[in-house]
Design a protein that fits this description.
Number of helices: 7
Order of helices and strands: EEHEHHEHEHEEHEEHEE
Shape: elongated
Structural class: alpha+beta
CATH class of the largest domain: Alpha Beta
Low-confidence stretches: none
CATH topology of the largest domain: Glutaredoxin
Mean pLDDT: 92
Strand order of the largest sheet: 5-4-3-6-7
Distance between the termini: 38 Å
CATH superfamily of the largest domain: Glutaredoxin
Strand content: 15-25%
Number of strands: 11
Helix content: 25-40%
CATH architecture of the largest domain: 3-Layer(aba) Sandwich
Length: about 220
């Protein structure tokens, strides 16, 4: 069955650069990001993992656990992490899954089946750049898949986490290009009477489009 928004993130047990991890147990009670990489010692991946390490405090403030994945063995990961730290002047302190057999990649449909050149020496497809945001109930809330050639925008990933966390707590949604602190939209399921109590002074643009000041995030 294909994974969709609202699916429960499948559980797995894997070797990582931080030891053996049971996924559901590891993320219990937290938000989580699971993101995949085609291979170790590749240029785009090296910049991405460095950026995640650089922004580790941003994820920690939001209660988000990070788990990377690359389609190589553990011994390669350990050497690669040294390169990532050196090139980006960071300390990669989050786990990276050793998924040489593509166990997790298959479980989460991360394999590049369409590009027949994107394979390892054994002819097994590499992973594409998948991102899964998973909430504390282990529900998948976002899925983005980038081509192997394009590095991810982690500003966007953090932006979506902020939107989801605010929406879960405050009965709001966020408009196009929303950023932390911008006005938000009153959820369509909230009546005008309720809105006056919850969001005093909200403004109506159309009966179905009502704006209010953004609730504050706790950081």
């Amino acid at each position: 069955m294909s994974l969709r928004l609202g699916s429960i993130a499948p559980d797995f047990t894997v070797q990582t650069t931080k030891g053996v991890i049971e996924f559901h147990k590891h993320i219990e009670g937290s938000w989580a990001i699971l993101f995949s990489h085609p291979a170790d010692f590749t240029p785009v991946c090296t910049t991405e993992l460095g950026e995640v390490a650089r922004r580790s405090s941003d994820f920690a403030q939001r209660g988000v656990k990070i788990l990377g994945l690359s389609a190589n063995e553990l011994k390669d990961h350990e050497k690669w992490v040294e390169d990532i730290n050196e090139v980006n002047n960071v300390n990669v302190d989050f786990p990276i899954i050793a998924d040489g057999d593509r166990k997790v990649a298959k479980l989460y449909d991360m394999l590049d089946h369409l590009d027949d050149t994107n394979v390892d020496q054994k002819g097994i497809p590499f992973t594409v750049r998948s991102v899964f945001i998973i909430d504390p109930k282990k529900v998948i809330r976002l899925i983005i898949t980038y081509p192997a050639s394009t590095g991810r925008n982690f500003d966007e990933i953090i932006r979506v986490i902020d939107s989801l966390q605010l929406g879960d707590k405050h009965r709001i949604t966020t408009p196009a290009n929303w950023k932390k602190g911008d006005d938000v939209i009153v959820h369509p399921g909230v009546s005008n009477e309720e809105a006056e109590k919850i969001f005093p002074g909200f403004r109506t643009v159309k009966p179905y489009l009502r704006f209010t000041n953004s609730p504050k995030l706790p950081f």
